[in-house]
Amino acid sequence: MRKTKRITIKDVAELAGVSKATASLVLNGRSKELRVAEETRDRVLAIAKQHHYQPSIHARSLRDNRSHTIGLVVPEITNYGFADFSHELETLCREAGVQLLISCTDENPGQETVVVNNMVSRQVDGLIVASSMLNDTDYQKLSEQLPIVLFDRHMNDSSLPQVITDSITPTRELVADIARQHPDEIYFLGGQPRLSPTRDRLEGFKQGLAQAGVTLRPEWIIHGNYHPSSGYEMFAALCAQLGRPPKAVFTAACGLLEGVLRYMGQHNLLQSDMRLASFDDHYLYDSLAISIDTIRQDNRQLAWHCFDLIGKLIEGETPDPLQRKLDATLQRRYKTAG
Amino acid sequence: MRKTKRITIKDVAELAGVSKATASLVLNGRSKELRVAEETRDRVLAIAKQHHYQPSIHARSLRDNRSHTIGLVVPEITNYGFADFSHELETLCREAGVQLLISCTDENPGQETVVVNNMVSRQVDGLIVASSMLNDTDYQKLSEQLPIVLFDRHMNDSSLPQVITDSITPTRELVADIARQHPDEIYFLGGQPRLSPTRDRLEGFKQGLAQAGVTLRPEWIIHGNYHPSSGYEMFAALCAQLGRPPKAVFTAACGLLEGVLRYMGQHNLLQSDMRLASFDDHYLYDSLAISIDTIRQDNRQLAWHCFDLIGKLIEGETPDPLQRKLDATLQRRYKTAG
DNA sequence: GTGAAAGCGCTAACAC
DNA sequence: GTGTTAGCGCTTTCAC
What we know:
homodimer, alpha/beta, HTH_LacI (chains A, B), six-stranded mixed β-sheet, DNA-binding
């Protein structure tokens, strides 16, 4: 293992019979502008190629005080939406010669602090975060040290750069549609009430009811958290309380939906005529027994904007606008009888 | 942005009125063994804490010629199995103070070369790869430079360190069961015939037929590739050829199954009595209209062994055994009538 | 046109 | 007990 020792610029220089400085110029393609003799240049390049010279990224990072690395912090990489987003972002990074570091928080604010500190100590040039925190004070402070972009979730009136999907509009439209079919019973299952996705989607839910002329009943709104099991429990409790499955349910995120589906699978409810809708899409929903309407985020756009923001911030530019809101798409699967 | 300039060990030393060397000793917790005065030590530590001193990882990496970073290369992070594996591996790495770099190849050998080179140039200490290559010559060569562990897929007689799930045994058992129910028609949809998962799972398929006393018909075996669309196309062609859906199908990986399900969804076949089975599990399969038997890999074990191997290799140890084969679990969902 | 030297932040040998 | 120094690999003035 590790037989071949690294070849350094000093080695290349010596082999080519020039100084480190000259070799450096040539290898950085600045030989033209700084008038290095063509013959010298070719010699250096030949040696470098022949010995597979690769610059030490550590030496460079140390010198430049730049790691060409950015961090991505997400709640769960096993969540299809975040995986898709990560993939898109990784592609953008690779094309730009930037290395992406990915860490998961498991929806746990304590762990979020750990992984973020970890990335800071790794001297990432910037940080892109889908935070599980309730407020942005930590990030506000951190953003004095390095560029931060929040996405997917946003905090109360945060002024930090951020990219989110507009949840309210599509939720309103979808919920209004469902409410017209089931004006007497439509439940909202959400995560922590203080997290922005919950608040926004609940707002959309309320607007949807209003739009359909349906009066909200307080018991329709149920809060839990975004842990996988929470959707299951909320739905189980609801079924127990009603003595039957509800007529219509909107879940605020795919994790919650997952729990609901698990319960339904275990209790043979998948063939029922319950109307189910959710934020977040998944390709397997096309193959489920039950037709679920969903709201699909555009992860490619999301990733692009995050990358654009963080890149500009790192370069010291001031991107405009600093906060971006993207459109989602309704994915309708439910077919109204007749 | 970036108001606060980094504080270095030199700053700490000066503020504490000691030399860099002393400060370094103290900060690395080696003050006891090298008899630094307690008073000095406390002073240094106080200053460091007060100014939030954080060592420069780049300087350290440069000096130690170690990045405390390992690379993970997977075909698709959006594939649930790989996402789950990545998550497990990331947790292990974090606990060990190692940073994990993740890159995707999109099942494309050319891109695999790119991302691997990328990681090498990032000077990762080791590399864990689920390769889409047909042979291991590239990795054989690369392993002279740095430790490599292959997982999930293995190449022909490769002697490189690797961790794989035993596909043959569970596939045989599952297929034998299906073959007893449908001795006259059971199809195998696989990826590239030369990739190890395809070969192993096909071998298990054949053994399963033999075990059930069923004679294999050559037309039952269909090869495509592991791209999402391939399963769809193979299955569509099969349905077209038969003029009806097949009675029983085994797909060699979840990507292929995804394609089959998409076709079935579009053609209202999800309620049919076709028997479907596959390698790789997904939590949503519990909620599908059709009951799919699957073979579930143990990603936590898989990640643990990869981490164990790469860690030991990096430390210069020779792990034993160098190649590991783990057991999978049958996830039965199909209920035989009666 | 090219080379010598300094410095990025850190640690380890070796003085004192 | 503590300080001095050299060196990890690279780039960038500034001389020559």
